[in-house]
Write a structure and sequence with these properties.
- The chain contains 3 helices and 4 strands; from the N terminus they run H-E-H-E-E-E-H.
- With 95 residues, it is an alpha+beta fold.
- The chain is globular.
Length: 95
């Protein structure tokens, strides 16, 4: 909500880094909560992404939700030794 209230250019995308460990217990639950939890930003940014556990989740584009199956799964993510920035870059190039 704070980022959305700042009045950024609507062509800017928002990347949210989720620093949350779940130890494999509630992965699906957390993934399913990402879209509802980012609703306040969907109309203020061109795209809204969440970077979590080595995967970049594209959640919203131009205020419209993206289907869950479009989200990259961390099982297929690149080697964990690669930085979060490299993962984010590869996710953008895949679009």
């Amino acid at each position: 909500m704070k980022k959305a209230a700042k009045g950024y250019d609507p062509n800017i995308s928002l990347l949210i880094y989720l620093n949350l460990g779940e130890y494999g217990i509630r992965r699906r639950e957390i993934e399913e909560a990402m879209q509802p939890s980012t609703t306040s930003a969907k109309d203020s940014f061109y795209e809204v992404w969440v970077l979590w556990q080595g995967a970049a989740y594209s959640l919203w584009r131009v205020g419209e939700p993206l289907p869950l199956e479009r989200h990259p799964k961390r099982e297929t993510a690149v080697d964990s030794s690669i930085s979060d920035a490299a993962i984010w870059k590869s996710a953008l190039e895949a679009e």
